[in-house]
């Protein structure tokens, strides 16, 4: 191995390229780094393919790099970069917690250092980390970086790339009898429970009052979901009547997306629509419960969740007002377990702590 990267000349500002798929993080990183008179952010990139071209054009001294990104994950990009064009890299991710397998892999692949991205109140959290971030970028700029031979990544880091984030997400679907069933589940949740997204078949004129009623009976903050709203722990988001609710991922955070597209499984909001979006964007970081209801909406989505690695639960027949939806899920093999209504909340919580 031979040292390749050279420190910028004394007196010249350190040129930084910020690589992160979240537009918010790219903006914050640019602002925080630019506040240091010795640093200039020469560009940003939303994924490694864009970054590759900007490295050629802009010739930065240091890269900041996220782990979770579309098209190519950060560790694969880092591995290719350090093999072909070694340069100082500071990892900035929700996954880079000290001692975590993904951090050790990043360092072994040639990253100089890491900063843990705040997972709650990102804007304020990043501002608190400004001095740390600036210090690590300055240190990285003077680091001697060598070409690193290709080596296999660990099983833990590969799993981390599969849409893992630092938070858990719970999803609940219901129809007939569901308004009271959901109330019972939420009333058993602690104030700091993982975020919950909920699709209940309900007319548009009733969903606001439904959310308000649930909020009164829960230690969590319960509200009707709004389009683009960030999904936060300790909060539950109800799909508005007449609109689909989907979960969308941006960086390491999830957001609510509302849609007026056609009904699915005869319903809008549809449980299948919600569950399938959770399967796509949260995968194994999710747990879901399908409660009482007529028909089979949610059965297909619950199966997709199970196939994506999520924990899945169906309410049992004895405590369901109508065992149509959960029964259809059980028939499809979508439910990992079947539980009475009173056990749904503790079972969901158990899946988030690894005690199930």
From TrEMBL:
It holds the Pfam family Response_reg. This is Protein-glutamate methylesterase/protein-glutamine glutaminase. The lineage of its organism: Bacteria, Pseudomonadati, Pseudomonadota, Gammaproteobacteria, Lysobacterales. Belongs to the CheB family. Contains a C-terminal catalytic domain, and an N-terminal region which modulates catalytic activity. SUPFAM superfamilies: CheY-like, Methylesterase CheB, C-terminal domain. It catalyses: [protein]-L-glutamate 5-O-methyl ester + H2O = L-glutamyl-[protein] + methanol + H(+); L-glutaminyl-[protein] + H2O = L-glutamyl-[protein] + NH4(+). The gene is cheB1. The active site is at residues 175, 201, 297. InterPro entries: CheB-like, CheB_C, CheY-like_superfamily, Sig_transdc_resp-reg_Me-estase, Sig_transdc_resp-reg_receiver.
